[in-house]
Amino acid sequence: MAVLVCAGLLAAGGASGANSRTRAVAQTFTVNIDAANKSANESFLSYFPSTVRVHAGDTVIFNELGDGEPHTVTLGTLTDKVVAAFDKLTPKQQQQAPPASFVRLDATVPSLLPRGPGDAIQSVANPCFIDQGTPSTKGPCVKVAQPDFTGQQAYYNSGWLVSKDKFTVHLSSATAPGTYRYMCALHREGMTGKIVVAPSGTDVPSPSTQFAVGQHTLAASEAKLAPAVRAERQGKPPIASLKVPGQNVVLAGSGSPAVNEASIDEFGPKLIKLPVGGSVTWYLLGGHTITFNANKTENDIRSTAPDGSVHLNAKAISRANSPGEPPGTSSNGQSTGPITFKVVTATRWNGRGFHNSGLFLNSGPPRIEGYKITFTRAGTYKYICTVHDNMKGTVVVG
Questions:
Q1: Which listed residue, of 5, 16, 23, 144, carries a Cα 20 to 30 Å from 253's Cα?
Q2: Bond into 135 cis (ω within 30)
Q3: CA–CA gap between residue 235 and residue 212 (Å, rounded)
Q4: 12 in helix, strand or coil?
Q5: How many CB atoms within 10 Å of residue 353?
Q6: Alpha-helical regions (H) of 6-114
Q7: Which of 150, 175, 114 has the alpha carbon at shortest distance from 301?
Q8: For the CA atoms of the chain, what is the radius of gyration?
């Protein structure tokens, strides 16, 4: 789930000049899913650009560029209804207490991953195209060839995308003018976009112009995150007034109050040195693992079965030689109050065998959970997060 450079795809997008008039020839537009910052390991829960204006008969290519954060492109009338209803909620309802009627409506578009143990939802993790009804949460969809997008399908889903994946949406020449919403089936209403189909006699900006708008938005977000990146690499939180307790502390992930829907996926600092019997405490901001000695079957949360179907890799997210995260209810974004740091799991390790904290999901402001390991044997121990590519660190003991 590494990085993809899309310059060639941009060139393939076609039109030159700042704006393009209505054309008889269909055009191809490019939308990037997430992003790949060469100077920092980051995730952006956004599409760039988030709105693309096209004509019926055009094509939109979605390019997955993230560092392993799971995403989908999920369109259809079900998504249209869910996102439209979400936009009508008050900010408080959106963030903390949506009404039961919205919760029921939202459930008509299944989430990519289960809320609790289990496999990825197969009708979301794999491509699925349904004209009417709702997708099953119990099994995969019937395999069919991907149809042109008409705007009338109930569910039109890319499946779980990883870096270098593309999802190509060809709009039928019969697609009516209008706005067609899409979202990531994991990050839900926090990660949405629009395909706006203009009437045939109406001009739309060129593919290159629209792509540039998305890149401008991305560059602004990267610039706002930069101070938090510098702080995390020194083991400091993004808010200067916060003090992280303890010694040999590593921040597992970070972010910035200045940037919504974006995160820093790095361990900071990346190198810790300590004597035998010393301890390291990781404070986790976001969904991460602390994973040592992983092989190729354990280092990625997404797996592909022999039949080509996509699944959640239980080895990569489950605790191993570790107590794991204690059960609890996530407070991330659900309440207010002072930010606190608390060690919730402490263990000892001799450096041998596969060691995995498991995926921490309950950690986030105002309570940031700590995972502590006491190292009982000298050595150099490299570790990763199994969710995010290139999120790596090293502990030197002795």
A1: 5
A2: no
A3: 34
A4: helix
A5: 10
A6: 7-12, 77-87, 91-95, 100-106
A7: 114
A8: 22
H or E element that contains 18: none
Q: Is residue 22 scored above 60 in pLDDT?
A: no
Domains observed in the chain: 7-221 (2.60.40.420), 233-397 (2.60.40.420)
Instruction: Answer yes or no: are the C-beta atoms of 65 and 3 closer than 8 Å.
Output: yes
Strands 262-268 and 42-44: antiparallel
Token pair in block for residue 175: 């697609």
pLDDT band at residue 329 using 50, 70 and 90 as cut-offs: low
Q: What digits encode the pLDDT tens for the residues 51-65?
A: 999 999 999 999 999
pLDDT at position 327, please?
87
Burial readout 91-120 (b: 16 or more C-beta within 10 A, e: otherwise): eeeeeeebeeebeebbebbbbbbeeeeeeb
- pLDDT, tens only, 211-252: 999 999 999 999 999 999 999 999 999 998 999 999 999 999
Burial of residue 231 (number of CB atoms within 10 Å: 0-12, 13-18, 19+): buried
Whether the per-residue pLDDT at 4 is higher than 60: the answer is no
In angstroms, the CA 147 to CA 294 distance is: 40
Q: DSSP assignment, residue 345?
A: E
The token duo for 335 is 């309440």
Is there a contact between 342 and 316 (Cβ–Cβ < 8 Å)?
no
- The whole-angstrom separation of Cα 155 and Cα 168 is 15
The closest of 327, 319, 322 to 386, measured between CA atoms, is: 319
What is the distance between the alpha carbons of residues 166 and 199, in angstroms, rounded to a whole number? 27
pLDDT above 50 for 337? yes
Name every residue whose Cβ is closer than 8 Å to that of residue 386 and which is 6 or more positions away in sequence.
289, 291, 294, 298, 299, 300, 301, 313, 316, 317, 356, 359
For residue 223, the tally of other CB atoms under 10 A from its CB is 11
What local confidence, expressed as pLDDT, does residue 258 receive? 93
- pTM across the whole model: 0.90
The values of phi and psi at residue 197, to 5°, are -90, 115
- How much is the pLDDT for 330? 54
Q: Which residue has the tokens 């995260």?
A: 325
